Amino acid sequence: MQATMSRKMRVSRSKTFEMQLKGYRLSTMEIIYHMPDHPHLLQSFIWQYFDLVPDYPELHKFLDFWRKNIEGPLHSVRVTSNDLVSPGKVRNVSHSFALH
Fold first, then answer.
1. How far apart are CA 57 and CA 65, in angstroms?
2. pTM
């Protein structure tokens, strides 16, 4: 069982890394929507996924699904994205210590 889980995790990490190299970025979406039974109340839903910035095709698919299948009407949507794979940063170090 452990070997199977480990293999699946490696495949998953490899797949997400490949996606990032193709331009996908980790995106977080917060949907604020009206409660179906109490339209004056708002509820928050958070969804995190990999998507292509700035077109967000996965976001648009999800929102289309929401509008067609979920009773809670949308109030607002906020999206943030982050580059997990980026060029290395170089920084000068003025001091170094060795632990023995």
1. 12
2. 0.65
Amino acid (1-letter code) at residue 36:
P
Please name the helix (run of DSSP H) or strand (run of DSSP E) that holds residue 75, with its range, or none. strand 74-82
- Cα-Cα-Cα-Cα torsion 48, 52, 53, 54, nearest 10 degrees, comes to -120
* pLDDT tens, position by position, 44-70: 999 888 898 888 999 999 999 999 999
The domain ranges of the chain are 2-82
- The residues, any chain, with a CB within 8 Å of residue 46's CB and separated by 6 or more, are 28, 29, 30, 31
| Main-chain phi, psi angles of 86, to 5 degrees | -150, 165
